[in-house]
Amino acid sequence: MRSMKSRNEMIEAVRAEMPERRWTHTVGVMETAVVLAERFGADPVKAERAAILHDVAKYWPTSRMETIIREEGLPADLLQYDKELWHAPVGAFVAERDYGVTDPEVLDAIRYHTSGREGMTLMDKIVCLADYMEPGRDFPAVNKIREIAEYSVENALIAGFDSTIAYLLEQGRRVYPLTVMARNDLILFVRESGR
Ligand code: DGI
Ligand code: FE
Ligand code: FE
Fold it and tell me: Does any ligand 1 atom lie closer than 6 A to the CB of residue 35?
């Protein structure tokens, strides 16, 4: 029987997988995810756990990620889109295999932290938004996103996806369908829930 690594074991192992500046980003995502979880009523321990692990595969060689995508049955369509998308589903796989995480809420939040998806859970939204707005982030829309996040996780996340999609369009790059579906679905959610 394999048990889950402790918080400190996770922190030390993930830290060793990345350069110092990416670890600083991870700490920012951890702190932001806890704040957002408390603000919007999610479990802060799970949010922090997903945040610790979310970029665990970010610095893995492309070939290593590709092997896992192919051999472990992860969505093969990812291979036709930006490599920046790959570390998220690979990270979820690694969180389960190497860190002993079994909670689907945590694993999904890692899996979808880059692309988003239709029907995002509150945990998915919090980790994805924390990744956009942690204190080290600096891009044109970030202050607006932080302001909106004071009251609406969905509206803040829409602003985040808008900025990513606009950037990809500007660059003439492809947009992964889940990102479009995530944005559309969040807009519907906001409209129907009046948030
Ligand atoms: O890993 P991080 O740098 O902390 O952040 P992330 O996991 O959100 O990765 C974001 C990068 O992925 C960002 O530079 C844009 C790029 N990307 C490429 N294609 C897509 C995409 N992001 C989304 N959401 N959708 C895409 O289709
Ligand atoms: Fe990431
Ligand atoms: Fe990140």
Answer: no
Which residues crowd ion ligand 3, with CB under 5 Å? 55, 131
Q: Which atom of ligand 1 is nearest to the CA of 167?
A: 15
Q: In a 3-state reduction of DSSP, which class is residue 133?
A: helix
Report if pTM > 0.85. Answer: yes
What CATH number does the domain containing 164 carry? 1.10.3210.10
pLDDT of res. 1? 53
Number of folded domains that form the chain: 1
Which residue, among 184, 168, 167, has the nearest Cα to 176 in the 3D structure? 168
Residues 71-105: pLDDT tens digits?
Answer: 999 999 999 999 999 999 999 999 999 999 999 99
Q: How far is the CA of 114 from the centre of ligand 2 (A)?
A: 6
Q: What is the DSSP string of 127-175?
A: HHHHHHHSTT---TTHHHHHHHTTT-HHHHHHHHHHHHHHHHHHTT---
